[in-house]
Design goal:
The complex is a heterotrimer of chains A (179), B (312) and C (449). By secondary structure, chain A is α/β, with parallel strands linked by helices. In chain A, 30% of the residues lie in helices and 26% in strands. Chain A has one domain: Rossmann fold. The longest helix of chain A is centred in the first third of the chain and has 19 residues. Chain A is globular, with a radius of gyration of 16 Å. Chain B is of the alpha/beta class. In chain B, 38% of the residues lie in helices and 14% in strands. In chain B, the strands form 2 sheets. Chain B has a 5-stranded parallel sheet with strand order 7-6-5-8-9, with helices on one face. Chain B has a 4-stranded parallel sheet with strand order 2-1-3-4, with helices on both faces. In chain B, helix 1 crosses helix 11, helix 2 packs across helix 11 and helix 3 packs across helix 4. The radius of gyration of chain B is 19 Å and the shape is globular. Chain C has 449 residues and is an alpha/beta fold. Chain C has a single domain, classed as TIM Barrel (Alpha-Beta Barrel). In chain C, 26% of the residues lie in helices and 21% in strands. Chain C is built from 11 helices and 19 strands. The chains are: A alpha/beta (179), B alpha/beta (312), C alpha/beta (449). Chains B and C meet through helix 4 of B and helix 5 of C.
Chain lengths: 179, 312, 449
Amino acid sequence: MGERVVLGAPDVGRALRRMAHEIIEGNKGASGLVILGIPTRGVALAARLARLVSEVEGVDVPLGTLDITLYRDDLRRRPTRRMEPTRIPGDGIDDKVVVLVDDVLYSGRTVRAALDALGDIGRPRAVRLAVLVDRGHRDLPIRADHVGKNLPTSSSERVSVLLDEFDGTDEVRIAKEAR
Amino acid sequence: MHLPHLIGIEGLDREQITTLLDTAEEMSHVQERELKKLPALRGRTIVNMFFEDSTRTKMSFDLAAKRLSADTMAFSGKGSSTSKGESLRDTMLTVAAMGVDGFVIRHSASGAPKLAMDWTGLPVVNAGDGMHEHPTQALLDAFAMRRRLGNLEGRHVAIVGDLFHSRVVRSNLICLRELGADVTLVAPATLLPTGVRDWPGAAGVTVTDDLDAVLPHVDALMMLRVQRERMSGGFFPSEADYVAGWGLTRERLRRLPDHAVVAHPGPMNRGLEIAPEAADAARSLILDQVAAGVSVRMAVLFHVFAGEGSRS
Amino acid sequence: MSTPTPSTGPILITGADLLGRGRADLLLRDGVIAEVGEGIDAPDARVLDATGLVALPGLVDVHTHLREPGREDTETIASGARAAAAGGYTAVMAMPNTTPVTDSASDADWVYLKGLQAPHADVFPVGAVTKDLAGTELAELGLMARSRAGVRMFSDDGHCVHDPVLMRRALEYVTAFGGVIAQHAQDPQLAPRASCCDEGPWSGRLGLPGWPAVAEESIIGRDIMLTKLTGSRLHVCHVSTAGSVELIRRAKADGLDVTAEVTPHHLALTVDLLESYDSAYKVNPPLRTPDDVEALRAGLADGTIDVVGTDHAPHGLHDKQHDFTVAAFGMLGLETALSVVSTYLVQPGRMTWADVAQAMSVRPAAIAGLTGHGRPLAPGEPANITLVDPTREITVDREATQSRSRNQPWHGRTLTGAVVTTILRGTPTLLDGRVVDLGAAPDTIEVPA
């Protein structure tokens, strides 16, 4: 198979803590922050980041999820996917700083869809992007503000993010052949 | 999950129905936003072919398609019931030739949506055909009930009224059974659907003519429209006679369990199958059903027209 | 009742299995069977090698709809006669629901004379029981009987003679000339015109207007009683339910002169086919349940049901390509009837070929009062012969038809047993599966097929 682990559980934990601090620093505190996870694994990562930010700042950070199924640009080229929940915290996103959270940043198309979805919901003051892994190979002019790990890959490789919430363990693996 | 069409609830399994209801739930959240439009069906053209009057269903489908950014066209024509003039086949082929992506069809003849699909090769969503099926109505009924009652597994739903002429009962019965609900059909023998116990998906359904015996045990009571014209066909002798046996009167309303809800797919005949007090009671689901219509139809259109396999 | 058919020279059929009872040669000369035996020597005769084929008397259909006059775009007397020849028939009874209706002596004669010009089969008119099939007053039954056509069979087929008094009078009146009333048993209130699906789980499930068995059985029951009362003859068209078979069984046990017919489609096709909403399966009476089909097969096999009648009902595409409730009722039948009976009754061993000869030739001729058909394969008898290959498999193709219509419910289905050759008074009308060109049969109106 040629699969190897590039981040273990302690690495993932450290990366997220660092990202939480970066978010606070970039925002000069937690005020006005809204953290939105992109299903599926981005939701769990967003929840962890929100918890870490809250622990540091001592305030609850509004947390939500943003489904991008209906905004995908490959909607008709793939079998119809199930819609995942979109849950926007009660105060909405207008004039907030929204931090979008996903597990892997690759082509950038998911983030593009997420920006479109956000635009239909409201007008944030700013949008930041936090990803656990940036593996490069962008199709669109998109970059992440907060990155857990920059992972140079070839496009034939496959990156999988395992999270305790879904998989019983925290791990980032890289496999040789593409699916 | 891609659906090639939605001709009927018959043939859908529990997982598919549940997915549709879950999608509808997400769509209903979109309804609460200021900007209610989604881009999922951008560039798709869906034609609402209504061969039978139904302003409400037509509006509901039209709005659902527009909220998903589809282009919509409307065709209204009196249903065939005659073989003169342009045939259904010619009408369908003509519209299909304009390069549309699919149809929403309402027709007075059972089977017309299926034939339209066979003839055109395009996906069709059935918006009610003859005495056959009305799948989106059944889905929105289930959606509204699920919101009030939670999971419908093991819940007891009684469907009461003119079950013989109703397309809703066929779809509802199969939908509710598939979701694990216990279903009792209540009607005088003249208004019972033919051979209902032998329909696929209807196994385990209870049939009775005794509404009063059923009332204390239901979680949901679905009252179906009884058309006054049926009297002339001898289906029941008079309004008073019908109400005495099967109308949801104020007295009967009081005998429902506290948590039980009352549904009616409309249009209602207040004073016949349903007393005004029942229609307006807090337990009434009637406006919830209407509100659910757009969300459910958005979900259906999404699963039929959005993905791979639908024509582009 | 002899029709001038272009005569051919003598024909020697060799090695045919006569009614499935044993092999013999048949020498046909001057329109009659000249000799039956083994090793017939006839040097002047054209030889038809019938080794492996079953010889039956030419088939007779008591229930055919030709659309002439009125709807020549869907069938003419000539095209219907060609379809008859293709199906092994030498005579067909043309139902009167044409435009105009065959309800007078002149209308009957028109059909009869037109039939004389159709060389592929003998065509005889069935007269209407009531004027314009309206069910209100008797048609001129006696004048039709005394016309050149010599009508003996009367039917309002497509409509039920519902008025019990009118039915009684009709039964009584035709006794004067040995006529028979062929009833389309359908109570018009229990099964109104819109009814198009056997009433039961399928009609409920598909949401199609139900046609309950009782609508047929109540009329048959009543008519049996009227037959007893009047001492007349009743023929029941297209029996479709198990209950009807039982009623007829009892009537026969009571010694009444009641005969009955079943269509090929009711012997095999069932209501579940309507799930497709394909109007090819729309027929009146409707396709019924497997239990009904079984009762009909048993009834035909034991003789309770006397004959197979095709109810050949051609319809144009534009009459059929509608939603199910609006599309026309009816199916083609002439060209496939024998193959259906072979497949579902002969192959499984429920009927012999001799039984088939009875049900598709001898008894139909007797019911219709035809003296020149349904005769034994014996010297001196008219040379009306159908040769059947009992093992040949055919896949029905609705385009490969002599009919002007294509409403073929058997399209794409494979059947075992096929008509190979049909001979009408010594002249082949179908030879080795091909309809013989017997010269132009003039159509009243030339309509492109």
